[in-house]
Amino acid sequence: MTLPVRRNRPSTTSERPLGWTARNPLAEFDDLLNQMSGLLESTVGSVAPAAVAWTPLADVTEDDDAYRIEIELPGVKSSDINVDTDGQELVVRGEIKEKERQGILRRGSRRTGAFEYRVRLPEKVNTDEIAAEMEDGVLTITVPKAEVATHRRIEVTQHKDTGRSGG
């Protein structure tokens, strides 16, 4: 069985369909997500919007004594953030509440609603000493490394003879 081959492909931007440049490149993804949501709802039922959380942007770095997780949470108050550990998993949860506005919102691109960030911690960390600090819209979580035996070279010395004679 042979598959059909499309022979007339547009090769230049002038041959693109009308309206190509005026389209929002993310509109197709939005349409696809809406279609997938509709399909999911039709098969398993409706999902409560509050149960769906988005994941904020974050960086995880490591230095000699700790891991640092920096999570971007602009406009979030520290009192609206929960940081928990469950075994080797660190979970950051919270909610960005939508502001009451006057007038008509013409364009909105800021995220609102529940958010959740999860990261698996290495086994050798001190979970009792984890600290979290919010500054300038960035939550910085410091996870100290546990003190473990480190590699150490031991010098071997020559035993000095005390002048005893054998035999």
Kindly describe this structure:
By secondary structure, the protein is mainly β. It has a domain at 46-99 and 112-144: Sandwich (Immunoglobulin-like). Helices cover 11% and strands 28% of the residues. The strands form two sheets. Strands 1-2-7-6 form a four-stranded antiparallel beta sheet, with no helix packed on it. It has a three-stranded antiparallel beta sheet with strand order 3-4-5, with no helix packed on it. The longest helix has 18 residues, at 27-44. It starts with 26 loop residues before the first helix and ends in a 23-residue tail after the last strand. The mean pLDDT is 79.
What keywords describe this structure?
single chain, four-stranded antiparallel sheet, Immunoglobulin-like, mainly beta, 1 helix, 28% strand
Name the helix and strand elements from N-terminus to C-terminus, one letter apiece: HEEEEEEE
User: How large is the share of residues in beta strands?
Assistant: 25-35%
Output the strand order for the largest sheet: 1-2-7-6
Number of helices: 1
CATH class of the domain at 46-99 and 112-144: Mainly Beta
Q: What Rg is obtained from the alpha carbons, in whole angstroms?
A: 29 Å
Give the distance, in angstroms, between the N- and C-terminal Cα atoms.
96 Å
Mind describing the biggest β-sheet?
Answer: 4 strands, antiparallel
SS-based structural class?
A: mainly beta
Determine the mean pLDDT: 79
CATH architecture of the domain at 46-99 and 112-144: Sandwich
Low-confidence stretches: none
Shape: elongated
Percent of residues in helices: 10-25%
Number of strand elements: 7
- The CATH topology label of the domain at 46-99 and 112-144 is Immunoglobulin-like
